[in-house]
Design goal:
CATH superfamily of the largest domain: Fumarylacetoacetase-like, C-terminal domain
Helix content: 10-25%
Oligomer: single chain
Order of helices and strands: EEEHHHEEHEEEEEEHHEE
Number of domains: 2
Largest sheet: 5 strands, antiparallel
Number of strands: 13
Distance between the termini: 28 Å
CATH class of the largest domain: Alpha Beta
Strand content: 15-25%
CATH architecture of the largest domain: Alpha-Beta Complex
Structural class: alpha+beta
Length: about 210
Amino acid sequence: MRLATLSDRAVLLTEDGAVDIADASSGRFGPDPMDVLDDWTAFRAWAGSAELPAASPYRTADLDAPVPRPRQVFAVALNYRPHAAEAGHVPPEIPLLFTKFPSCIVGPSARVELPKGNVDWELEMVAVIGTPCHRVPASEGWEAVAGLTVGQDLSERVLQLTGKPPQFSLGKSYPGFGPTGPALVTLDELPDRDDIAIECLLNGES
């Protein structure tokens, strides 16, 4: 299943187009994408058996962030060995976490105004949590995941590295510094959820 946001409404993406969730469920779910996630277990059960109406065509460029207003955004620093080495670090044994303010989240095609300084980017795999959880054992971590999407972690490095300790979250949370999407893909769509390739292109080059 592929969940997305189109014209501020939650939709399911199919091979034929987009299906408005609120219309298809007669108002039981949606139209707010966040409402769908708030009742994720019931929504998954409905979506697995529902007879969907005909889909409507859409443009990928019109899709917004699949989770437009997350309550929290946690990120893991130095989680890629090449990037850690580039920064002169070794990936820590205990993950180094930081936050991005939810207000920075935008869709995959958003135009981002860059602030002064040194803006950098990092391609990220984004896990969307679909159920309230706390102190979940690592062995059960996937059970809390509604699905995956991709995103960019944009950073203004001058502000980020100002002070001791540095200002990580401020430098990573300018407006538009959290592009995500175009869709949330549920785990059953993935051949191997532990082996997923992602690629970033800049001016056509990876």
